[in-house]
Amino acid sequence: MPKSKNTKIASNDPVVKTILDLGERLKKSPGGQMTLTDVIGVAELLTSSLQPLLRRIDVTLQQELRGILMKIETLRSEISKVHADDISANRIPEVGKELSEVVLATEFATNSIMGAAEKVLAGEEKNDKEFRELVNEQMMEVFEACSFQDITGQRITKVVETIEVIEERINILCQMMDNHGKKVDPVLSDAERTKRKQLLSGPSSNGVDQNQIDAMF
Amino acid sequence: MSLDTSSPILVVDDYSTMVRILRNLLKQLGYENVDDASDGTEALKKISEKQYGLVISDWNMEPMTGYDLLREVRSRSETMRLPFIMVTAESKTENVIAAKKAGVNNYIVKPFNAQTLKGKIDAVFGA
């Protein structure tokens, strides 16, 4: 059996020495048999020799697990600041609704303006007085239809705000990946929160209509 | 009783398009004496300088919202009875109730037409 450098060093260890002795005795014994006392002796020796190692492993393992636990806690705390559920449950569906409303509003306004223009073009054969009245009436329709710009502007602003919030939260996630344990800035500053509280959230898809408002007055 | 057509009206809205629409609608209804302001702060300044017969205000404006303007107007003895109509895209029940509690005379939800505007002005003045 070739002896390695490790074997030479290890052979000074009482456990290794005992096992090597046992191996020699086994080779020399006629049936390759060993006594139960020899086996128990080796087992006891192995157990006692492993105690310091197991104690060291136990302490190191505890420290590592505690470290992992703290990192998980930090990550959990930081992820909660991202409010991913708010983005998926509220903000993204709301953005979809807002954009759909913008499409509807612009379509309605376009149809109204085109309708007014067509009526004016079709009224050229009327006398001056009637034609002037028709033009005035249709111009009012055009003015009313143009009010879509105000509403769609507010809706688009809400969409832009949502995109900004998502951007901010992605940045927070990126920071978390780069710098574990470093303090992350809040999604909104106190000043921003106050400012937002003072303003309404813009047009609502689920608000009451003019008739319902009239009933309240 | 109805609002005198020569009576000055203050339109408050941060969207110049909306101000223009309101001016045209009011002109169509016979009201040509119309001033405008782009937010509550500017409106308050104008209200303190001139006696208006009616204020028509948007809600969503910065830095001072239409709601804050309404509360400020109602808190001042010289303007506490100034007719005030809120014109806004915001139509949540709680906001209509809040405006009513703050003393708004009527509430118009955008988009609206000339008839709705006339109806609300008439309602405010008991015509």
3D architecture notes:
The complex is a heterodimer of chains A (217) and B (127). In chain A, α2 (14-28) packs across α3 (36-82) and α4 (84-122) packs antiparallel against α5 (128-146). Mean pLDDT of chain A is 78; it is low at 1-7. Chain A contains 8 helices and no strands. Chain A has helices spanning 5-10, 14-28, 36-82, 84-122, 128-146, 148-178, 190-198, 210-216. Helices cover 80% and strands 0% of the residues of chain A. Chain A is mainly α and 217 residues long. Chain A folds into 2 domains: 5-74, no CATH class; 83-187. With 127 residues, chain B is α/β, with parallel strands linked by helices. Chain B has a single domain (9-124), classed as Response regulator (Rossmann fold). Chain B has helices at 16-28, 40-49, 66-75, 93-102, 114-124, and strands spanning 9-12, 34-37, 54-57, 84-88, 106-109. The longest helix of chain B is centred in the first third of the chain and has 13 residues, at 16-28. The radius of gyration of chain B is 13 Å and the shape is globular. The model of chain B has no long low-confidence stretch (mean pLDDT 92). Classes of the chains: A mainly alpha (217), B alpha/beta (127). At the A-B interface, α5, α6 and α8 of A face α1, α4, β5 and α5 of B.
> Main sheet of chain A, how many strands, which sense, barrel?
none
Per DSSP, the total helix count of chain A is 8
**Percent range for β-strand residues of chain A:** under 5%
Q: Looking at CATH, which topology of chain B would you report?
A: Rossmann fold
Number of strands of chain B: 5
CATH class of chain B: Alpha Beta
Give the domain tally of chain B: 1
Largest interface: A-B, 29 and 35 residues
Helix content of chain A: over 70%
Q: Class by helix and strand content of chain B?
A: alpha/beta
**Stretches of chain B where pLDDT falls below 50 for ≥5 residues?**
none
Structural domain count of chain A:
2
The helix content of chain B is 40-55%
